[in-house]
Design brief:
By secondary structure, this protein is mainly α. Helix content is about 80%, strand content about 0%. It has a single domain, classed as Up-down Bundle (Ferritin). The protein has 5 helices and no strands. It is elongated and about 45 Å long.
Length: about 140
Amino acid sequence: MTDDTIHLLKECDSGTKTAVNSIRQVLDSVKDPQLLSLLSDSLKAHEAIGDELHSRLSELGEKGKDPSGAARISAWAKINLSLLGDDSDKTVASLMTDGCNMGVKQLGIYKNKYPTADKDAQKTAEKLIQEETTLCEKLRQYL
């Protein structure tokens, strides 16, 4: 195992926590039952990936990584200020699409930054990228 494995797993953990927090923040604003179901399913998928990450990090004797304070505040502010102005499903979809795109970008950066991470860590990062990509694609109909 390399340090790259631990670093990649921790960055995935941080990204998963950001996604879970963001989805939870918007759920009460969702009006369309299908959008609510889509986001609820994605929340469960992110939580499951997070559980996998916590288990793997624990096996390695490591703790997870929380998103930075600045990232949490920025995400909270963007979501809440946007919804304050317009709490439509279109706004929710737009916010979640932006978050998905940011997540995919960041995960791509980390995969390149930690190229010697083991195959399981790489697979977990890819699984998270795929979840974000799929959610983004499904959100398009609500934009």
